[in-house]
Amino acid sequence: MTGPDFDGLLRHIRETADVEISCTDCFDLVPQYVDLEVAGQDADAAVPRLRQHLDRCAVCREEYETLRDLARLEAEGRLPSVDDLRNSL
Amino acid sequence: MSPVGIVTVKTRDNAEWLSALRSSGAEQATALADLRVFLLRAALYALRRARGNLGLMARAEIEALAEDCAQESVLAILQALDRFRGESRFTTWAYSFAVNAALVAARRERWKRVPLDPLIEDGAWHGADPGRQALEDETLAAVRDAIEECLSERQRQALKAVVFDDVPLDELARHWGSNRNALYKLLHDARRKLKACLEVRFSMPVQPTRRSEP
User: Fold this and answer.
1) Distance between alpha carbon B190 and the CA centroid of its chain, in Å?
2) pTM exceeding 0.90
3) Which terminus of chain A has fewer CB atoms gathered within 10 Å of its CB, N or C?
4) What ipTM was predicted for this assembly?
């Protein structure tokens, strides 16, 4: 047992900004960020402050990572079909 | 035409998606059917990734949940069409609704049998490591003091539940009859207060108590 993550909390406290975007803002910005990432472009420069929110918010981060991987698989032509996904549940 | 499972859907660019979904009759019906297939695939993909949250749910139940998420997302997208600014592919934007619906549902499934009140009202830091506390007593004591003295009860409860007990933000929001934005702001305000407390009141740099392993 490692105990509560005080180090993680301290890091989040230290990096806290006066203004941070909301989860709704994050939801609106993530598709653009993901498409830029998948295209190999500088998503952080184009969509500033999003990464900061993703580092703080575990639920937004989970949704972003899933969307990113989904978009990447699709771009590479490797996204499983509906039937394959059903069969792999 | 692009294959997505057992059906084949028409390939559209952003403008064609918007035009078709805003049209009527057969053109709109076809676009809605195509969109639903895309969203079902995204929902199934997200639920498969979150399979660990779905416990003993049978495959048929997960498929039904994916269908519900896809349908819910179609309705949400139709209501939000005017918010699409064209800064991403339409399909990526649309997928985000299905991914959100599926992962919110998966988290709900994972936490629905966990009573949150005892977790929230218990002020103890579960799993505290006495040995580590002794070694890092000064920093930990400052953090604990700041949490106790600088935060409201609601902020302490949210911090403990989300940061230390890994309760998802949307589940705590649901439990409190609130929403994700409000909870995020509550925690942001709590972090700002703690930062001020630790840097000013305790005159100490806010640094991790130990460095991460290389």
Assistant:
1) 19
2) no
3) N
4) 0.94
Q: Which of A6, A69, A79 is facing B140, going by the closest CB pair?
A: A6
In angstroms, the CA B143 to CA A16 distance is 15
B203 by Cβ neighbours in 10 Å (0-12 / 13-18 / 19+) ranks as exposed
Whether the Cβ atoms of residue B114 and residue B174 lie closer than 8 Å to each other: no
* Residue B47 C-alpha from the chain's centroid: 14
CB contact under 8 A, B198 and A24: no
Res A86: pLDDT: 96
Q: Which residue type does A29 have?
A: L
Tell me the two tokens of residue B204: 């100490």
| pLDDT tens, residue by residue, B126-163 | 445 555 555 466 777 788 888 989 999 999 999 999 98
Mutation pick from A66, A68, A73, A88 vs chain B, by most beta carbons of B within 10 Å, is A66
Interface-testing mutation among A25, A85, A87, A88, with chain B (most B C-beta atoms within 10 A) = A85
Length of chain B: 214
Please give the Cα distance from B49 to A34 (Å, whole number). 18
**Residue B9, H or E segment:** strand B7-9
